[in-house]
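Hello K.,

You asked for the raw outputs rather than the summary table, so here they are, unedited. I folded two proteins back to back in the same session to keep the settings identical. This is the first:
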Amino acid sequence: MENVFRYYEFSDFFVDNSGAFQKNEICYSELNEEHFLIFEKKNQDTNPVYSLYVSKYNSKKEIGKNPPEILELLVEDYDKSIPEHRVVLRRYLY
């Protein structure tokens, strides 16, 4: 997964304090000034499980601090080896 995060220029992971992701770690990639893709990392101590969301914030400074205006789950338990999961990610970033 690290290659996916680097390739698509996701931020480093940080703890969500907005309540939207239950204090799990998240990272984001900017689609435009208000829309972002967010990966949420669960089960951090063993095998991490990632969920992919599209979200809307007033600015990227609000991510992890305030709840998003819009949050839509795109892929639960993202697996880079599943073509449909990769297609969802590419659809938003290209």
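The second followed immediately with the same parameters:
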Amino acid sequence: MTESKEVRLAHDIYAQIGGKENVDKIIHCMTRVRISINDYSKVDIDALKNVPGVLGVIEDDTLQVVVGPGTVNKVAAEMVREAGVKLGEPFPRKNKSNKEMVEERAKEMQAATKAKQKKSKLRSVLKTIANIFVPLIPAFVGAGLIGGIASVLTNLQTAGDIGDSWTQLILILNVIKNALFAYLSIYVGINAANEFGATPGLGGIIGGTILLTGMTPEAPITNIFNGDPLVANQGGIIGVLIGVWVLSIVERNVRKIVPNSIDIIVTPTITLLIVGLLTIFIIMPFAGVVSSGLVGVITSVLDIGGPFAGFVLGACFLPMVMLGLHQVLTPIHIEMITTTGVTLLLPVLAMAGAGQVGAAVALWIKCRRNKQLTNMIKGALPVGFLGIGEPLIYGVTLPLGKPFFTACLGGGVGGAVIAGIGGIGAQAIGPSGVSLIPLINSGHVVHYMLGLVAAYIGGFVFTYLFGTPKSAMEPTTLEGDVKLEK
């Protein structure tokens, strides 16, 4: 029986990273298999980059292998299936002698020390944020698009284009959407607890605490700093992250002094009581000030900076994606949506992917005799239109050099248009590009599409005129052999 391309790709990746024995655990995001490696000396990065189907490799705290959307789920599932574990679970370690274990532990400690010396605090923060929010990305995409459809139908109903018979469907779609967004703080609390080393269930409770369930206008909880009633979700996701971090510290220290025989009863009770009170009376008011200030600064930058600010943000986002820095913006988007109903930042940043699409189209036309390159573009371009940019980044523009920068300029053009028009926001987080259209706030869909077209054109023109390497225009076969000109 012929093995599928995903199974073959999983085997090829294992072959270049030292096998299953060299893996601690595996997770994945929308386009990348994220592999925790035991011994990097056994990994052949160059050979891994040349594996058919691998679009790029990022060396970070985890080894990130870019294989593209859809494929990533199947490859990661196959890799953990072969190891006999689930996604995120530690891989089994083979039995070793005492001496081997001591030597291996010494090597691991040495490697960890070197990694710690090299690793910046920013990298550590980014890794933590990614580990908390990456598992939620499919939920953001699915629930966000369902909510977008409900929003479109609601607008059509308000305008009289569809009748009241659609009311029930709109209600059902919103119920599905709200299953994520109404209780997002709980999901984030659980993931944050996993990341900070606390009990996941307790993290979920702290996340749920900021919802202030049971509080009514007749029986409010008062802000001890200004005497005003607290508001549900005050401080938002920022408050949850701070609260669960405090939870991890308190739980760890309480557990040290509580006897094992009563730990299951006493530790969670004392921990929740202490951290719950801190969350309600200290963390929520503090995080509320922080989140409001953060949203205000971003809104002001876009208002005051206008097209210039939009150009800078749109042009700089692709490098952020390439380095994995874009994950840090997820809680900011969520906070803007919670506070104002939309994130004005996401549509601006979405133009970066559109600029890259325009660059890819220019390369396709100008390098049409390079069958190897055009074949790669044909495979990566459809998902590029849908806002998933890694296949084009690692498979097309970045390896060629100049097209990556001209794609950034195209994204800047689109960002300038979006920021110049102003008021264009996304009601939920989802992919960028065309896929973001259902999530754009009412009255601004056409404006957002104008930004997309501007970014497509900008990326195309800059790349066609200035960003196409001569080597990329040489005729090749699909295998990459240069044909001789007659």
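Residues 478-486 have pLDDT under 50 and may be disordered.

Happy to rerun anything if the numbers look odd on your end.

Regards,
P.
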